[in-house]
Amino acid sequence: MKRKRDKKTVPLGKALRLSFRVLRLWYKRYPGMVLSRVATTVWWSLTPYVGIYLSALVVDELAGARDPDRLKTLVLLTLFAAAAVSLGSALLGRWRGIQNGGLWFEMRNMLNDKFLEMDYVDTESTETASLYTNIWNHINGSSWGLSRALDAMESMLSAVLLFFGGVSLTVSLFASRVPDGAGAYKALDHPLTALFVIAALLALTCLSPMLGNRSGRYWAEHANDHKFGNRLFGFFCQFGFKKENAEDIRIYRQWNFCKKYSTAKDGIFYSKGVFAKLARGPMGAYSAASAAVSVAFTGAVYLFVCLKAWAGAFGLGAVTQYVASVSRMAQSVGKLVGALGDLRNNAPFLELNFAFLDIPNKMYQGSLTVEKRQDRKYEVEFRDVSFRYPGSKTYALRHVSIKFEIGKRLAVVGQNGSGKTTFIKLLCRLYDPTEGVILLNGIDIRKYNYAEYMQIFSIVFQDFKLFAMKLGENVAVKTAYDDERVKDCLEKAGFGERLAELPDGLETFLYKKLSEKGVDISGGEAQKIAIARALCKDSPFIILDEPTAALDPLAEAEIYAKFNDIAGDKTAIYISHRLSSCKFCDEILVFDEGRVVQQGTHAALEADVGGKYHELWHAQAQYYTE
Q1: Where are the domains of the chain?
Q2: Which of 208, 335, 379, 517 is packed most tightly, with the most Cβ within 10 A?
Q3: Residue 345's CB: how many other CB atoms inside 10 A?
């Protein structure tokens, strides 16, 4: 499949601004990581010049006066300096390793924290999901993005330090004069010769990394190909390892189907793929030219330094010093050009990252404290509430006006798509109404502190999630918890007998992803654990949003009836498209096409033969009447 080629080029100034912003972002969250990189870069960039300088002095002494005392002093000083550099490098390297060991996880935390902080409406957005997926595809593909910017900025710092260190030991190369009796070699002292040599060295120095950058740019320009190839590899090459695929793989012999994508020669990473063609073509040519220019530079340095030494401008030790220093200085210029090129190649991917990180929170967070009433007396009112999902022209709810108090049992029923779950999302303030207002004790819920308001609700969603962690942690949603309280909630939820059978009690891992001793649980057991989790939160409102939809109506009615007994003085709201859970409720709301079409008790609504509830009840009666 032909993939779109990314040809976007970002100006260097903008690339630098984006990269410095990344550096500030990393420093704000993980200062130790940044400081350890800076310290080790400074140390590793400058300390080699100490050895170069001292080695040159030793060679000069050996080639000159050969004073034993001076030689002894220089050798000891060189050994001591080498030991100090090695020790410092080891200590700094260990610090750096510790601080940067979790870089990938810290980057994931940075992006995931943004997901948790953004408005819920944005987390459900397909644009947000696509942006987040693209970011991680590029990170996993070629490390484009946040971590690459950090590496490039480190390379820039190293290059600058290497350059100035090299300059300090190279200035005397051009200041050293050839003796008057050197004949034609005297031309090496001419200012024009020096300018020509410097210009030639700079040209060769810059040309090599520029060619290397042009080669590397093909990776950035074909990042979409790389991303797509990784997606194919990740899916088809790991298809057979997923337990949930095992039956279909064997029944339909699906491994044959996967071979096309995992072994085809024209695949993106294979011998006839796009990157192989580029390597045999322009990308390989630029890379080879870069290496050739680098070798030419080394030859030019040796030629100039050796000619001056041959003419008598300086001794053998200085040759060692100048060749090493000029080579490192050239390396620094090349490294700087390469780093700047990498910053430009990486800039479009940083724009993706910041497009995600800069998603604004538009939801008003509120400031009022939610009253913590001992009697749990709260009154909730929907006053002419209508709602449209973002990007939709159709109302999911229209003119809903209801009022209910704490301690009541409220059923919300209706066919699929009638607006039941939308009603709950608005009540919990996952969304704000498009029109109308929702009140808690007479106050607009938008005025309450958002985090505090969320704490008054415990919900068991239809697609609830349990984690491959310990049972107690799943229920308490924390690592340190009250064992007795968690056990009590599990027993109330009907999980007591199963708990007694578990080998490690509350310390038992669910599933086997993190522990071989983990236990697999059935769907019904998972529902009981989810209910126990809702009870453990001990919020005044507890909501069951069709968590038993996969069960038959009688099993669902049994769970709801048991839950009604353990809800206590909480307001319990039951959402279902089936009516088996409604008979014991104090009040029933009947939704149809986004409106509350009926409200009342089971007996009153069932008696209304022309109402929607009567129609639904008798349509489903065969499943749950005795």
Answers
A1: 12-228+264-357, 461-538
A2: 208
A3: 24
- Dist. CA 617–CA 560, nearest whole Å: 17
How far is 509 from 517, CA to CA, in rounded Å? 7
Mean pLDDT, to the nearest integer, of 370-384? 75
CA distance 614 to 32: 66
- Residue owning tokens 């190293």: 158
Tokens of 200: 């030639």
pLDDT value, residue 96: 93
Phi, psi of 550 (to 5 degrees): -80, -10
Nearest to 493 by CA among 564, 555, 406: 564
Structure tokens at 497: 């007998």
Amino acid identity at 513:
K
461-538, superfamily in CATH?
P-loop containing nucleotide triphosphate hydrolases (3.40.50.300)
Chain position carrying tokens 């810290």: 106
What is the enclosing helix (H) or strand (E) of 38?
helix 31-63
HSE-up of residue 251 (Cα within 13 Å, Cβ side): 4
Query: pLDDT tens across 79-109, in order?
Result: 999 999 999 999 999 999 999 888 888 888 9
The sign of the CA dihedral 463, 468, 472, 476 is negative
- Measured CA to CA, the distance from residue 524 to residue 114 in angstroms comes to 34
pLDDT band per the 50, 70, 90 thresholds, residue 1: very low
Other beta carbons within 10 Å of 334: 24
* CA dihedral for 360, 362, 363, 364, sign (positive or negative): positive
Cα(15)–Cα(7) distance, integer angstroms: 15
Give residue-wise pLDDT tens across range 7-47.
467 888 999 999 999 999 999 999 999 999 999 999 998 88
Residue 447 structure tokens: 């005025």
pLDDT digits (tens, 9 = 90+) for 416-434: 888 888 998 999 999 999 9
Q: Which fold has domain 12-228+264-357?
A: ABC transporter transmembrane region fold (1.20.1560)
Residue where the block lists tokens 């700047």: 340
DSSP class of 85: H
Residues 6+ apart with CB under 8 A from 350: 15, 18, 19, 22, 145, 146, 149
Q: What angle do CA 308, 312, 314 make, to 5 degrees?
A: 75
pLDDT of 238 > 70? The answer is no
